[in-house]
Amino acid sequence: MVGEGAAGGSTRTLRAQGALRAIAADRASTERLRRTLEQALVFAGAAFAALYAPSADGELLYLAESAGVPRTLCGVRDSYPVAGRAPVAEAHRGRPVWLGPEDLAAQAQSRRVPSRAFFLAALPVRGGGCLLAVSERAHGFDADDRVCLGLVADAVAFPEPPAATDGADLPHGGFSLAMDTGRVRVDENILELFGLDPDDFDGRVETLLGLTVPEDLPSLMSVVEADHMTIGDRELEFRVLQPTGPPKWLRLSGRLVPGGEGRPARLVGTVADASTLRSDITDVARVQRLAAALATAVTVRDVGKAVVAALRRPLRADRIALAELEGDRLVVTVLDPPEPDAWPALWRAEWRTEWPDAPVRTMPTLAAALREGRARIWPAGSSLEETLADVGPGGLAMLPLPAGNRMAGACLIGWDTPHDFGADERALLTAAAGLAGQALMRARAFDAEHELVGMLQRQLLPRRLPRLPGAVAVARYLPSTAGLELGGDWYDVIPLPDNHVALVIGDVQGHSAGAATLMGQMRTALRAYAVEGHPPDVVVSHANRLLMDMETDLFATCCYVDIDMEEGFAWCVRAGHLPPVLRHPDGRTEIAEAEGGPPLGVIRQSDFPMSPLRLQPGTMVALTTDGLVESPDIDIDEGMDRFARQLAAADPAHLEPVADALLGKAPRSDDVALLLVRYDGMAARPLRESWTVWRVPQAVGHARRFTRRTLRSWGVSENVDAALLVVSELVTNALVHTDGQVRLDLTLVNGRLRLAVADASPRTPVKPTSIGWEATGGRGILLVEAVSAAWGTLPVSGGKQVWAEFVLRH
After folding, report:
1. pLDDT, tens only, 392-423
2. Is the dihedral of CA 665, 670, 671, 674 positive or negative?
3. Topology given in CATH for the domain delimited by 492-679
4. What Enzyme Commission number(s) apply to this enzyme (predicted)?
5. Could you tell me which residues are beta bridge partners of residue 466?
6. Domain coordinates of the chain in residue numbers?
7. Which residue, 33, 141, 187, 207, is the most exposed by fewest CB within 10 angstroms?
8. Nearest to 332 by CA among 412, 430, 450, 394
9. To 5 degrees, how large is the angle CA 729–CA 732–CA 734?
10. How far is it, in rounded angstroms, from Cα 655 to Cα 666?
11. Regarding beta strands 406-415 and 319-326, do their DSSP bridges make them parallel or antiparallel, or are they unpaired?
């Protein structure tokens, strides 16, 4: 085990040495120091790494550069006194410091140190100063980590220390902004660019900001506000208003420099005229077209398509990827071109979907660019990790997509052949990134809220459809994309006794939480009335009266179809809703001529007539709401005719693809509910017989003789005595404990014998928990349960049905 660990550590050390040598050899890189620090994150597992350098007066150690998480999360300062006892100062004096959580907790009383479970390392650097690294891992820095940190400490080099005072002459086009007061010293050339007379300038940064184009002000404020800055370079193009003509483009390049103890941080840099670097107004036109496209982009996918359309052709790019930033993961939502072969093999092989979805930490270069929040460009031959290098071997641009104080995502643009990045392209990328970030956040919020709306709507609909005897049913619900409010469309499939099935589809007026709530109530009410055994017209009439009693301002429409699966016959009741569309086995379609009544909740005393429908095996019944057949461009009659034609061309053998195809043509301006049922007919027709039990002394005997004769005629010879016992008990209970008519029903299908006794009382028989030896009754239900395979009760219109089943051997 020791040998394996040593071998692994040696391999990691060699990789770190190779990476540091490659960075040192890149003399043209302006990011060499940051890239060197990033190797501490990659090879030593650090969460934060920083280089502290001595100030010009030798009294302070200031934060020269950093990489990793924001320094505030690690509790470190931007400067420390050289003579102090901080780990940074100890390392500057030549002594390496390794501290664990207990050591840091002990020092927390006297000075500011990380308060969470951090491990801290401070290593001296040649020439003074130190390398500071912080780890969040449970074991801290192991031996191999310490070796790699030593390599990084040997590789870092200092920039020139900042001046101790702010009195040096400014360069041409230079400025120095005090971050605490907003006072700014500027070169006269900057005042000329802004159109200000030096005698009229009051030294306030707000005066300069007031002359910028309002649309560019948010991005400019993100640069000049200290809360949104980290140590490092900043670059931004913006526009200033002119007395006449179009706004002038300026370019700001700056760096935030910590002031140290007693002195404010300063933003120093230059402002130059960028108008001459821009080719012509076509870039502005492209940005305007992108802004117009993003203004109408609703979903995240729409935003990605708009960005691709605006950038790929003007930039002559070979590939563009747009990714959302979800926590610490990048999830690619748009790839152009979409073919997998156009993208690196590592993307397809190592990530868990056909499109990338990977932690940001696996790409340190990309993670660093996201932290900085500005566009980064790597020309051909740049040293990049494999996951990025193959995206743009001829050049790679990465656009962080900012949205307020956070990053919404990133856009990667790659070229296969060496690409020369002009100033006009850089300006186009910067402007596109800001627009796309805001649009992405809006689209993400819309997608999330729309998904929530759809989820709530689906919770009010049946979770799954029941299996039907002699039929197959599929249903779909599609929320509208026109808004975020809940809709009132619903559907239901209700199994009923005697192989009947009720199909229901409906729509509550409006789109609101009230409409959705009412929809759930109406669906529940219709199901309850149907299960009670009422005929279709009574079910709909009861629902109408219930809605009237609820005293709501909303109304509802519905179509209710009761199908007898044994006979292939159906009754249809419409309450202000679209009629069913029938597709016959020969492919003909017809819109059923079903007489209709008014919508539910409009007139209390309404008639809802029943219309007969004849179904041959293979007939498809289609019920839908108006969202599928009506739109501002299509009349509802024309939409129903088109719906019927689409059904005629469909394959009824596979209902799932048919439903998907029909919804694929939905206008999406309204909610859509769709219910398709293919009636196949029952393979085995039940044998049925009924007997009305008269209330006479010999009633039970008559019922037993009727049962014996029926079973003999059906050829049933087994379980006859048990069946007669059940008939005796159920008929006796009905005669003794209820009033009104009593009916005995016998059914035989697929080797199951069903005995059912219906009476006029809704009270369900109760099985006793215990019976004393002296009791003279109460054993009937216990006997039924003992001799039958199953038993239960069902509500019927105004009463109940108690049933028992026997399984017969074939």
Report:
1. 888 888 877 777 667 777 788 888 888 777 66
2. negative
3. Phosphatase 2c; domain 1 (3.60.40)
4. 3.1.3.16
5. none
6. 7-155, 174-273, 293-451, 492-679, 687-807
7. 207
8. 412
9. 110
10. 17
11. antiparallel
